[in-house]
Design goal:
Blueprint: H1 7-21, H2 38-46, E1 75-81, H3 84-95, H4 101-112, E2 121-124, H5 129-135, H6 139-151, E3 154-155, E4 159-161, H7 172-182, E5 183-185, E6 194-202, H8 206-217, E7 222-230
Parallel strand pairs: 1-7, 2-3, 2-6, 6-7
Antiparallel strand pairs: 4-5
Helix pairs in contact: 2-4, 3-4, 4-6, 7-8
Length: 234
């Protein structure tokens, strides 16, 4: 009996074929080559994001948060607003099967983060199963693995999806309700380890809030977060 090729393998084969017959263009300047050229990456990482990662409004202090926000994490970083080059890069990665964009996203986060202790564990926000099947990959897990290689840090997949709800297009109230029920932690965490939760986009902040809260409930005492971008809720 002939075995069928898994969907994710087919997508990988298709992406590889497209990369050979149709070269990439920089999401910033459009030059032929990588999806993000060095000049455009430099422009993004040298323009520091100055606002609170949690609310996107108040000016950030050294911990990446404003004085009014008290989320479940104590330190936060964001690369840039989701617009122009960043928006095109995310759309390519998540909605156009541009798997190679994951390396560019990881590189932006690597260049924007400070030196981190070697004990930090990178925890990607898990993707729902439907989106993994559609794309052929878990987009934040791939970014986490790339970032871990650049930083020499361990990836920890302790955070798991408890639901399969989609937040795209949902109201702020619905996003908060969904995020509150979205995660579970499959293990007891080490209280002496710092866990860095990473995601690609922060909109209302609910995902990072409840992802971090889930880790705290599992035994963590110190949770940080890092995101590629922030955008207002449409």
């Amino acid at each position: 009996m002939q075995q069928r090729t898994p969907l994710n393998v087919k997508k990988t084969m298709i992406n590889t074929l497209f990369s050979l017959i149709a070269p990439h263009y920089c999401c910033g300047c459009g030059v032929t080559g990588p999806v993000l050229c060095e000049n455009c990456k430099y422009d993004i990482t040298t323009d520091t994001y100055e606002y609170c990662v949690a609310c996107g409004q108040g000016r950030a202090r050294l911990n990446g948060l404003c004085g009014g926000c008290k989320p479940s994490y104590v330190q936060a970083w964001c690369v840039a607003n989701r617009r122009d080059t960043i928006e095109r890069l995310i759309n390519l990665y998540k909605f156009e099967n541009g798997k190679s964009a994951g390396a560019a996203i990881a590189a932006l986060m690597h260049d924007s983060l400070p030196q981190l202790p070697s004990s930090v564990r990178i925890v990607p926000v898990p993707t729902i199963a439907t989106h993994i099947r559609q794309r052929g990959y878990d987009h934040m897990l791939l970014v986490a693995r790339q970032l871990s290689r650049s930083r020499g840090l361990v990836v920890d997949t302790c955070l798991q999806r408890a639901t399969s709800t989609r937040q795209r297009g949902a109201s702020a109230t619905d996003r908060k309700r969904q995020a509150k029920e979205a995660f579970t932690c499959r293990t007891v965490l080490d209280p002496d380890t710092t866990y860095l939760v990473i995601d690609d986009v922060v909109t209302t902040g609910s995902t990072l809030q409840y992802a971090a809260q889930t880790l705290l409930q599992a035994g963590a005492r110190n949770v940080w977060v890092a995101t590629l971008s922030r955008q207002p809720l449409d």
